[in-house]
Amino acid sequence: MKLIRYMKYLFLIVVAIGLVVLAMANRDPVSLTILPSELALWTGVDYAIELPLFLVILGGFVTGALVGFIWEWLREHRHRAAAATNKREARKLEREVETLKGQKNEHKDEVLALIEDASPAR
Hints:
Elements: H1 2-25, E1 29-33, H2 37-43, E2 48-52, H3 53-75, H4 77-104, H5 110-118
Antiparallel strand pairs: 1-2
């Protein structure tokens, strides 16, 4: 178990070193514009920002991961809803079984009722 934990830490350290090396190699500023220049002239929106290249690269990865997580969360909504419905139904049926067992053993000795409930169904 400790080996898996150490392997996870080693992997995270390697990724962190890789990100630092990527950042150091791509420090030059780049111009990030909202719209292409022709469309910016037509709409009147000409916004640009200077950022280091590594921030643009890492920002793209983070944005892509977030969009993917949100997309999957929305896609799996019906599965979570079905699981919640099944869980509610199971709880309802368990309560019903307990009620029926109580009615069945209502006028019996407690010890005999426990033994009868524990014995396998015939």
